């Protein structure tokens, strides 16, 4: 009985092995075909990625030669890259036998779901479009985001969802386009000229006329000041400890800080040389007995 049971068990195992071999033999072509499809899809993906980079480079160079604004070029290249990758993945999916209608339905459902989950991302995309349409600034402009916790810096690039600024100390500041488009933006470099105003306090014992003559002389001698465009020297305030005098003059925007720092230094040197005192804050106390 035991020998018969063993023989029966061996027969069952042999039958199972035969069935497995037959199953593998029947499905080897399908398995090989699927593996080839996967390998081909991987090859298509890497080749497609190289091709997309090449196409984006052509688009960027063409727009640069046409003199298109750099921010528009960056935005278009970013959007084109996104669309080309989506198209490539769509073609790979259909190659694996997924029907176009199924992919379209899947994309529609996914689009609604993702849209509800990522409303901020869509707002950033819309904000990027608004920034390119109305152009409150361009790549290379120095801007200030005038709000609580705002940032400032030189516009480095404008992409689909974010705008990157470079701070004075070369830090990357990434701001969502939706936030930026809803902020008050101060474009410091939008104009070629910028009004420079400097005020300084002199003692009540100093000669006001002489101080004003010194300031006028410095403004006419400075290489960056435009003395023919509304230059004015004035007495601004009779303060507690000083007479505050100052001037306003136009300077080239890209020379604003250099001119400001240089004139501050020259004012101190000339006032010292001409005996014009710049007082400290002081309080006179009179004691009556």
Question: How would you describe the overall organization of this protein?
Answer:
The protein contains seven helices and eight strands. The chain is an alpha+beta fold and 289 residues long. Helix 3 (100-117) packs across helix 4 (119-134). It is elongated. The protein starts with a helix and ends in a 15-residue tail after the last helix. The model has no long low-confidence stretch (mean pLDDT 79).
Q: End-to-end distance, in Å?
A: 136 Å
Average pLDDT confidence is 79
Query: Can you write the helix and strand succession as a string?
Result: HHHHEEEEHEEHEEH
What is the subunit arrangement here? single chain
Q: Widest sheet: strand order?
A: 4-3-2-1-5
Helical coverage, percent range: 55-70%
Which percent range describes the beta-strand content?
15-25%
**Number of helices, counting only DSSP H or I runs of 4 residues or more:** 7
Low-confidence runs: none
Give the number of DSSP strands. Answer: 8
Q: Main sheet? A: 5 strands, antiparallel
Rg is: 37 Å
SS-derived structural category: alpha+beta
Morphology call: elongated
Give a short overview:
With 289 residues, this protein is α+β, with helices and mostly antiparallel strands.
Name some characteristics of this structure.
three-stranded antiparallel β-sheet, about 55% helix, five-stranded antiparallel β-sheet, alpha+beta, about 290 residues
